[in-house]
Design brief:
This protein is mainly α. The protein has one domain. It is built from 6 helices and 2 strands, in the order H-H-H-E-E-H-H-H. The chain has a two-stranded antiparallel sheet with strand order 1-2. The chain is elongated, with a radius of gyration of 21 Å. The two termini are 31 Å apart. The model has no long low-confidence stretch (mean pLDDT 89).
């Protein structure tokens, strides 16, 4: 590749920076979507310990009885009406990805309270996807540097 003058070289480098940022933002979007999906899938199923996150404790009998009276599914922790599950969303902006819930009760479940044992969802969802995230962001970075998709396996989405 030849450049006739410094202005053309500078323009080329500016385009590379834009391509790198676009590629990284796409990689973050793919990762955020994956974490969101994993978090939604965890709700309603007892989770084993993963990384620094504890296994979910069984629901108390009284909780199961209350759920049954309201017509909620039995033996499906955190599911109840499904509203908390639906509240999990993601957004990506300026090389930042946020995955979380707008349901205020999610915080109580994630970290526990004096009366409720922790049943973390968001942390384990990210942890379970650690290898995928590393691979995806790595591929996004390289794709942005070379100016196109390397394999297209991970970044399609």
């Amino acid at each position: 590749m030849e450049f006739g003058d410094l202005a053309k070289l500078a323009a080329h480098f500016a385009m590379l920076e834009v391509a790198e940022i676009k590629s990284l933002e796409h990689g973050l979007k793919v990762c955020a979507e994956r974490i969101e999906q994993t978090a939604k899938e965890e709700i309603g199923h007892y989770q084993n310990a993963v990384g620094p996150y504890p296994a979910w404790s069984p629901l108390a009998e009284s909780t199961e009885e209350q759920k049954a009276k309201k017509g909620y599914p039995a033996n499906a922790p955190l599911l109840a009406s499904g509203e908390m599950q639906k509240s999990i969303k993601h957004e990506v902006s300026a090389l930042t990805a946020i995955v979380g819930s707008t349901d205020k009760k999610m915080v109580y479940h994630e970290f526990g309270t004096v009366r409720i044992p922790p049943r973390p969802v968001m942390g384990p969802a990210a942890y379970r996807n650690k290898e995928f995230i590393l691979k995806t962001i790595g591929e996004a970075a390289m794709s942005g540097i070379v100016g196109g998709s390397l394999s297209g396996r991970v970044l399609r989405g």
